[in-house]
Amino acid sequence: MAHLEDVTARVDAAITENVIEHMNQLLIVLSDDAELSREDRFTQQQRLRIAIAQKGHHHKAEAEQRRDDLTKGGTII
């Protein structure tokens, strides 16, 4: 059970850090983790996938807002 707690803490830290590259690296590491049950591994990987997707959606929304802010009257200022 200690290993699962360690993995959960690492996933929590990666999600808090909010860097997609580090979350992807941890996804790969978890794929090869034989100490976790299949269900535990899937749960932790799913948490990372959701965080990555949310960051992607947030980035897209920021880009759209930035474009809206730069565009006034149909032209880029």
Automatic annotation (TrEMBL):
InterPro entries attached to this UniProt entry: DUF2526 (IPR019671)
Name recorded for this polypeptide: DUF2526 family protein
Annotated Basic and acidic residues bias: 61-71
Pfam families in the cross-refs: DUF2526
Species this protein is from: Buttiauxella selenatireducens
Region Disordered, residue ranges: 54-77
